[in-house]
Description:
By secondary structure, the chain is an alpha+beta fold. The chain has helices at 18-35, 39-45, 51-58, 77-89, 94-114, 117-128, 244-280, 292-320, 323-331, 344-368, 370-374, 380-387, 397-407; strands at 134-137, 153-157, 160-171, 178-184, 194-200, 206-211, 222-233, 237-238, 282-283, 286-287. Helices cover 50% and strands 14% of the residues. Residues 102, 135-139, 144-145, 169-171, 214, 217, 222, 389, 392-396, 398-399, 402 line the site of flavin-adenine dinucleotide (FAD).
Amino acid sequence: MAVIRDRGERATLPPFGDEHEQLRETISRWVETEIVPHVDEWEAARQFPRSLYRRAGELGFLGLKYPESLGGQGGDYIHDAVWAEELAAAGASGGVGAGLGAHTGIATPPVFRFGTSDQHERFLRPAIRGERIGALGITEPGAGSDVASIRTEARRVERGYVVNGQKTFITNGVRADFLVCATKTTPDGGHHGISFLILEREMPGYEVARKLEKMGWHSSDTAELAFTDVEVPEENLLGPENGGFYLIMANFQWERLLMALGTVGAMRRLLEVAVAYAGEREAFGRPIGRFQAIRHKIAEIAVRGEVARALTYSALRAFVAPEARRREAIAQGDLTHPSVTAGTREVTMAKLHSQRACVEVADEVVQILGGYGYMREYGVERALRDARLGPIGGGTDEVMKEILGRRLGI
Length: 410
Ligand SMILES: Cc1cc2nc3c(=O)[nH]c(=O)nc-3n(C[C@H](O)[C@H](O)[C@H](O)COP(=O)(O)OP(=O)(O)OC[C@H]3O[C@@H](n4cnc5c(N)ncnc54)[C@H](O)[C@@H]3O)c2cc1C
């Protein structure tokens, strides 16, 4: 019987088209030539160089979804989705993906969507060039999943706010030039007492309290931040006062999609590594891929990757469909409009499924590589450590299940 070999070529699935596939190749080539050769060194140094933002900015990757009038490439969320997937697929390491991704994926989008033209000029334009690095600060030592219980306080004073509090686990927190920061402007206001302020690194009282050591994502920096009487002018209020919860919800959808896309890329790479290794490594006189146990494992890995990909692309389609209406609603200040959080169900499912699948796939690939899988040089032990953040960050698995359960009316 003739065997038709699957060389791993993938059908282009919507919402992607030829233009996106070309971008895929460009990003992939860049990652392979300018990032991958340095990843081990950057992981050991516990950070990648700041100049990488500038370089990515020069190449247009930091502004793919932003209008040309702001220095972007005039693309949309689908172009940015390619960026998220290919950074992971081409082996940039979770840390590099997280550092660049936090800047493009979670810190700058709220500035674009909710910012004033003055904020676009001061923060977004230099961020697109890679000159000013952004971070998003929501999590606090005492408040992670339970966002409404954050305690960082922004007290109203004449012409602005005075901020006191702490943030933790902040990606890019050590070197961020600006922090899109969730604060409490109405202490007993619950969800409706949260406002976003853009804090700037040079503001007196803004301090990087600690650089945190982590299980994975080693080449990204993660910080604990402390604010003592930081004076923030009112022109740094992002979005409406006490309307921050909607901003968080709108931002979460994109963050979760990016995480799902990252694991789609990571699983594609893990499959390639497993297939190549199983074809080369011999045991008991034959390539290990000829043992049914290994062949079946690899078949399952391929299916899991494809399921995650289909679910994630479906969520991406649901997310982007009402973008025009979403922009209109935000421009009118109508943050409760359904378009603002459209796609929540699909995005939640994609995030939940893909993050756990990636941990399990990475673990299986370590197993296929045997002792070599446990060694640094093949990069799969790093993939496993990096993947473990997925079911925690951007909303835990348990929180995803709560969201889905409630939407099902239970
Ligand atoms: C490497 C890293 C980078 C990060 N980057 C950022 C960043 O850039 N900006 C930022 O703001 N945050 C960031 N985070 C924070 C991340 O989003 C939080 O860790 C996450 O939301 C979970 O919050 P928590 O760690 O406080 O856990 P908790 O909320 O304390 O949860 C602890 C456990 O309780 C469970 N639990 C909580 N509530 C419920 C519930 N209602 N039902 C069932 N179980 C529940 C959780 O699922 C979890 O298993 C980062 C975290 C890490 C580890």
